[in-house]
Every structure is written in structure tokens, then in C-alpha cells.
Amino acid sequence: MAAAAVVAAMIVPPIAATPASAATSVATSGWTALGPAPEPQVNPLKGFIPFQGTYGNFPYSMEWAYFPVNAVMTGPDTFDWTVMDAALDDVASRGHQTALRFYLDYPSKPSGIPQFLLDGGLATHTYDDYGNNGVSVSPNYDDPNLRAALDKFVAAMGQRYDGDPRVGFIQAGLVGFWGEWHTYPYNGDSGRPNWMASDATQREILTDYVNAFHTTKLMVRNPNTMNASMPIGYHDDSFALETKTSSLGWHFMDNMVAAGATDKWKKYPIGGELRPELQPCIFSSAGCPVLEDGGDNDFPGSVAQTHASWLINHYAFQTGYSATDKPTALAAAASLGYSFRATEVLMPATATATTVDVGLTVSNIGVAPFYYDWPVTLVYLDASGAVAKSVTTPWHVSDIASGSSDRFTATVDLRGIAPGRYTLVAQVTNPLAGGVPVRFANAAQDTTKDGWLTLGTTVVSGGGTGSGPGAGHRGGPGGGPPGGIWW
Fold it and tell me: Does position 8 have pLDDT exceeding 80, yes or no?
């Protein structure tokens, strides 16, 4: 089957948009159905992403950045984070998060090794592979001074950036060519030396990351038994070429199976890069040539096996797809990661008391969870569109597993709202100021207020004076035990 047809086959076909006013009552008392729609073209922390920059060819919500360690580590205990902060601020100015990696050795780029380590006698290897021609050098990763420096570097980065809303994902990096945790062909085969870090050094670096980052999500390149039990996700940087399980035994999913890590996506993210040689052709009707024996050339199959949330695909942004290929590429990007659809809403048509019960049933129809606990915000808009009341609920879509639904309920205090007709809208709010919100795959998304899902209208006819707290809880299909009152 041609690549475009294969990708299209895995995407849920577009559903005719249903106006919010066409929502119909359902059997569950008080709950009203919400009309579906396709997954929005852009949502945070998922889809295709470019290298850092401004692009108009393709929608995106996250950007990729590399950093050399020596750009920030100025001495054994000193750091200057100016370069990283400038990049994060630049990306955030577009409402985007950054996915990033630090490196010591990037073929064809100047070395990322801090000068104090070189001055202290750190041994390095020169090489011409990957077009490097001696520009960068591969360090002795097991050198005690380098190990001590990396321990301090990771700890300092975690202290400064863990939980920073500008950061989407951090890849462990640091080790190997491009920070991709390999030194091939210098891996001990065919009589060549082995430049790769020892298992002890690899474990030490990953442990440093786990100890330093408790909120921001981490990734490492190679699934194996060493890291399978660690709270770290993975990135496949040869996506759709060396991804699916195979008879070769070394593809990304072969390693996932061998490590017993095939279910890690349920808690920890999977990302990576669509293999660069495939980016221009994988979504065309002709497809791509097979680049190597056992190559996948199967984008939807790779998504299905990995449950990937995001992929670098710089071609989509720098060059751009033809009018013929772009719809397939857009559908492929939308097929990555989570996809939330609100199926039912609970809200009164009229409210005379000081509190009202509201609720929302949400399904995750995507291939992966949402990995951060961003809350759902409810807002009552008056007839002019102004915010009359905003409620930050205790509802988190990160609680909804791929292929599952959750029903959330809350009691909202209406004191302080003047009598009148109000539209209730909902949003999973990005903690990044000006960041892209999580949009729902619903017909009523963005119909009243950009970035918000319209749930319906309520006429407040009394009790709307004074001020007080507001309330909520999350339950299963029949709700749950009552919670407190929420603003």
C-alpha cells in the first residue's frame, strides 16, 4: 500500500462538525452529548516539530534545540545559563515549549567539552566519520573528572529547570555522537576500539537525571535492561526506518521488547526524529525507497508500535510539503500522542442557587497519554464575552489513559455573578504564559472563544451575590464521592 494511503488508513476519518446547538440529551440524567470533530491540527507537546525558529509551512507547538555543555559549564562548579535561557525565551515567545539535548561530541561541530576538562588532561579521540574530519572529538566518558563534572552539570540543570513551563522534554544526551548514546563504528566490533561509556558511567548519568528532574519528563535513546525500570521515556531518532520489531534484533522496538519496556509509554513519553532521508517522501503516494535491508518505511505501523507523541520533522517546516502530500503529513502529525474528545457535559440550563453541579466526560482517543498534570479550567463568559468567573478544577486529563474515558464533576460557587445568561467554556490550560492550550476534538472547540471548548449556556437568575469558595471531584462513569467546594 502506498505510504499516503497507509497513513490515511490509520487516521480516524473526519467527522462532520456538529454545531454546539445540535447537542442532544443522553440517557444519563442531566448530561448532554457534545458533538465530535477531528483532532485539531496543533496541540501542545505533540505532533511534528522543527529546529528552533519561526516557520509558516506547518503547524507546531514545540521546537527542538541542541546545546553544547561548554556553552553553560564554565568551571568545575560554575555555570552561565544565558545561552539556554535565551533559546527557551525565544521559543516561548511563540507560545511553544522546547525539547532539548546537551552534547559533548557532535560530529562536524566544535567540541562541546568544557575547556577546564581538556586543560585537566581529559583524553579524547579524533575521527573523520559522519563528515567530522577532526572537528569534534570523542572524550573518554569514564574519566573520573568528566564523570564528576557531568554529575554537577545535571544536578545544576535540574535545580534550575525542573518544572520550568518553557521546557517540554529533556533528552539525556551527553554521551556518544550527537548525544545519542552510541559511538558506532567505534563500538569494539570488527577490530575497532570501543569509545562508548561503560555501563557504570551510563547508569550514573541516568541516575543523576532521575535525581535532578521530578516534574520535567526525560528521555534516553536506547531502551535496555539498565534503564527499563527508571522513570525515563525514550526517543527513536531513526523513526519509520529502524523502528518496528524485526528479525534483525536491533531495531528500536526489538530493544523495547528485549528490555521488557513495551508498556513504558503508558507512563513515560516516546519521541524522536522521523528519519531525515524519509521526511521528504514518506507521505507521498510513491513513498520512499528502502534505504537498508529490513528498513520499515512504515509510518503508521511505527506509531502504532511505539505510541510516539512527537517527532522532529524539520523538512515539513523548512522546505514544506506539496499540496498533494501535505494533507497526509498533517494527518500523520495529528495521529501522534494524545487526542481528547469531550463526549458529555453536565450543567444546568438555569441556576437559582448559589452553587451548581457541573461535569465533563472526556475520552482519550489518541495513541498515548498526556504526560503532565495540567488542570482543566472552566470559565463563565457574559454576553459580551468577558470573563465573569474562572474556576481551576482538580480535573487532570493526564489521568485518562489512551483508549479510556473519565467523568469529572465539580460544584461551582456562583456567588459574585450577576443575574444573566452565561456561556461555560473549558480548556486544559498550558502553564506557559501565552502557551498553546490543549484543544479538544469537538465541533464546539473554538466556537465561542479561541482556545476554549464551548460546553453550553446557563441562565443565572438569583443567588449571585457575595463571594465564596468553589468545589470538585473526579469519579468513574457514575461520578465519585463528593468533594469540597471550588471557586
Answer: no
